[in-house]
Design goal:
homodimer, 556 residues, alpha/beta, seven-stranded mixed sheet, five-stranded parallel sheet, 20 helices, 41% helix, 18% strand
């Protein structure tokens, strides 16, 4: 059976994605607005209904060999999901994967691309259910949940498929090779075969269960590997909906559904380390805390497992020279508030010259900058229309404890955190941004990631010193993002030089509806792979090419 | 200062290389015949003169900070070279590299490509001197020495440059990004910067001091890294000539010569491990024994150094079904004899069905196949015109000891090894191929690499069993090459399936002037990176893309 018809069906989508990846232009295969005009007038209602139907029930997959059940998800908006999922042992998952690998790796790259894009297209019909599930497992506001787990995550998946396709397509898969040798010649028919590394394990995180998992899964799949998505025990449902849909599509197409499996555990009985250490697992994608990531690196030191990581970092910002401070602080206030700072890309340490910030209206003092940032956050958070949806809820009580710990750290408080009412969800766990004033001597605090709505404003002697402090922090503690507000050529160049050296992506002078937290598929590389926050980048060539080898065959 | 004129000058060469790499067609930028018509009528004589002039003298580089001298090379043809080289400490090498890196990484990829190809073009004027130096350090016969260290190695360097260029060129380096948002839009100017990993260390081997070193060096250089070539103490001169020439070119162009450095030590006072463990070294290319390679892997386990390896393997062959056994054994005899089996690609374990080999003239018994292979090797080795030049000399007395050890292992001897007279070099260390008969029960012997002119013929119950034995051997002990003589579709498919799974390149039914030992730049990947013989492949995308990261910068 051939799947080339699926390739033909999706070839235009693939080529548009490849064009965007090459040129880095804006591209969105799936539109981001959760709009009825795009997704159907009843799509939101249907999605909510599907989400509600899945509560208090048992979730099924087309995946063999379950033993027992797991599941104890809790909505951050204050109620238990009461969903039970089948549990699968490491032995079963690996046996399933091994058998699925046999046929999957035999398919051509074109066939795999066709099948995978078909899987995504069909699963995209569930965007609204996925959005509500993401909201009620991660705590994201609905619009963000819809976008991050729906169109944005699916675009990242398509990006991985397209990048893997490009990497394989870089070289011909066969050639008639003729070597002239004086009056003779040698002729060889050469073919080149993509040999996947084998079984991929993608270890998901609690805050972006789909967006952070799809890149590794689909980069693995397009290059001939099969994948096991290990979900975070607190955020199972969103990716469970996707994987059930993928498995239905695979079965419908006559492909072994175990090409894409789910692995679910409970916090009390984790299986991640057991799976990760199995020799049959050849590549691992990990998103999560640095402590578990470092532990993984250590236990895998002696193995040949290829480990792709996105661990934690300390994102830095600098406000030095601005045109309009209002526009800058509007932007920054939103970045600090969005999903209550629970993004790996949210700024944490904000450097401001102690002499104040140069603006088109003169210097604004350090204290005034702090005060104005507080006002901007207040204005957003207390805006009943905007605030609650922007903040969302805390994905875990641990974030609240962290806010309390920071609030009682002894540092001057610029803005106190307080709970924010989430309409209709009286028990939602919600904290508005806490902003503290630190000094360079508070290194123990500043060099730690305070995941959640916690940021620090740090006075520096000069813009130059601020840039140096950022570069040093990135080199030592890693970062996913940096954000700088400087105007003069001197500082722009200095920042570029120092921060490229430090190995981190840079955003300058963002105002208006574009935020440092955002990373756009097809255009922005997510993660640089060049600092302690992780070795992987969505999706550079290294992210895909380490997942396969090329085997050459020569025949006369 | 811009170097774009050099890019323009070499753009056609680069594009032809890229075209060949993409299509895998035959391509040679530098012709392989050591012919006066190509390289100048006096080129050979001049090269020999240059080689002789360098004997008994002191070799100089354009490299700062030497302390003391080293050098005790010995020609395998029986005389000492008496060349002393400057020694450089790890501290000096790293300080030099760090300062050179500052400007090198700022150049554009086009500029680096232009400069590097110019370096190669100028150094290629020394092909004959490099050839004689290679002959008198490695023991290779002259023609092979010329080709392997001259055109073939330089083609591999050009291949690495072109592959690195392709990988970087896969994505735009800037874009005006416009995101439509209903009635608004967001505009960002994005630029993408290549951030090299830093300083590369390339650890060379004693048998192919240039061919095995250039790929890693030039893949590192094109992607913005600087490189330190650590030579094997017994084969310094060939690459020393290249590096002096490169440094002269760099200085002439106004580039810091420490972009490409040499590191030389003595066996009694090695510096490789010290260098490899320095945190400033970020990528290492290693070619050599598995024992030192495994040790390197172990000491680097906790570091973030990216290690590319080509270690040893056990190459396997199978003679099952042939058209003409004479043609097959002519080919195999040459492969076993070429450079006295001292190639990482030479077959070692040769499986033959115990019932004999099917030929177009009927079955030929196992014993007759062994006897005929002996005759073919005799005919080549005792051919005064062909034999000595094909065999060359043993690069080290350790190889001779290994031959003696194998000869007294108790296995049946199919062909005894004996020294072969090298015209004009009475003290040359030379051994003709030893061929032994082993059985599957001699696993301890068969699963070891017997580097040198040593091979084993092993009877198997069937062609199928032979294929299984090869696959198992590759999986457990690694291999650079496999060679099979089978005709029926059934066995061709089975071998492809099993050996692709095992992760090794395959050659079928080679006869005539093309041998399994050969790996053609631009077309054949050398090393699969998929079995215990090493993780690197010259030059797939992974070989280049792991040497840099991409840093994105966004500005309104």
């Amino acid at each position: 059976m051939s799947y080339l018809h699926l390739f033909e069906q999706h070839e235009t989508s693939l080529n548009k994605a490849i064009d965007a990846i090459r040129s880095r232009i804006f591209h969105a295969h799936w539109p981001e607005p959760p709009s009825g005009k795009i997704y159907g007038e009843t799509a939101q209602e249907d999605g909510l209904h599907a989400f509600k139907t899945s509560l208090n029930s048992t979730f099924e997959f087309l995946q063999n060999g379950s033993s027992g059940t797991v599941g104890s998800e809790q909505s951050p908006y204050g109620f238990p999901l009461n969903i039970t999922y089948p549990a699968y042992s490491a032995d079963v998952l690996i046996a399933n994967a091994q058998s699925a690998l046999i046929e999957w790796k035999q398919l051509s790259t074109k066939e795999r691309a066709g099948i995978l894009i078909e899987c995504l297209e069909r699963a995209s019909k569930h965007f609204f259910a996925i959005g509500f599930s993401t909201m009620h497992t991660t705590g994201q506001g609905f619009i963000m949940a819809f976008q991050a787990s729906g169109p944005h995550a699916f675009d990242r998946a398509l990006e991985s498929i397209a990048t893997g396709y490009m990497a394989i397509d870089a070289f011909a898969d066969s050639v008639q090779w003729t070597k002239p040798m004086g009056k003779m010649q040698v002729d060889l028919k050469k073919t080149f075969h993509i040999r996947p590394k084998g079984i991929n394990l993608t270890i998901g995180c609690s805050t972006f269960p789909i967006w952070n998992s799809f890149p590794g899964m689909f980069a693995s799949l397009i290059t001939g590997n099969v994948t096991i998505a290990k979900t975070h025990p607190s955020a199972i449902l969103p990716i469970a909906i996707c994987i059930r849909s993928f498995q239905e599509t695979l079965v419908d197409l006559g492909v072994n559904p175990h090409v894409i499996q789910i692995a679910i555990d409970e916090t009390s009985k984790p299986i991640t380390l057991e799976l990760a250490q199995r020799s049959e697992i050849t590549t691992i994608d990990y998103t999560g805390s640095s402590s578990f990531g470092n532990h993984l690196e250590q236990v895998l030191q002696r193995s040949h497992t290829e480990l792709f990581t996105e661990k934690a970092g300390v994102n830095c910002a600098l406000i030095g020279e601005v045109d309009s401070l209002d526009a800058v602080l509007d932007n920054l206030a939103f970045s600090l508030s969005l999903y209550s700072g629970q993004m790996c890309t949210t700024p944490q340490n904000i450097y401001v010259p102690k002499e104040g910030v140069k603006t088109s209206e003169g210097i604004i003092t350090f204290d005034d900058v702090c005060g104005k940032l507080k006002e901007k956050v207040d204005a957003l958070v207390f805006n009943e229309k905007m605030g609650p949806g922007t903040l969302g809820a805390l994905h875990s009580p641990a974030v609240q404890s962290r806010v309390e710990k920071a609030q009682s750290s002894g540092l001057d408080i610029i803005r106190e955190s307080a709970s924010v009412q989430q309409q209709g969800f009286d028990n939602a766990l919600s904290c508005s941004p806490l902003i503290l004033k630190a000094t360079s001597s508070d290194q123990a605090i500043l060099h730690e990631e305070w995941f959640g709505p916690i940021s620090f404003i740090i006075p520096v002697d000069s813009i130059q010193d601020g840039i140096s402090a950022m570069a040093e922090s990135v080199e030592k503690h890693g970062a996913l993002t940096t954000l700088l507000y400087v105007q003069s050529e001197e500082y722009l160049s200095l920042a570029e030089e120092k921060l490229i050296d430090a190995g981190v992506h840079i955003s300058f002078n963002l105002t208006g509806p574009i935020w440092v937290n955002q990373s756009a598929a097809f255009s922005d590389f997510h993660g640089a792979g060049a600092n302690p926050a992780g070795n992987a980048s969505f999706a550079d060539l290294s992210f895909v090419s380490k997942r396969f080898n090329v085997i050459g065959i020569r025949k006369p």
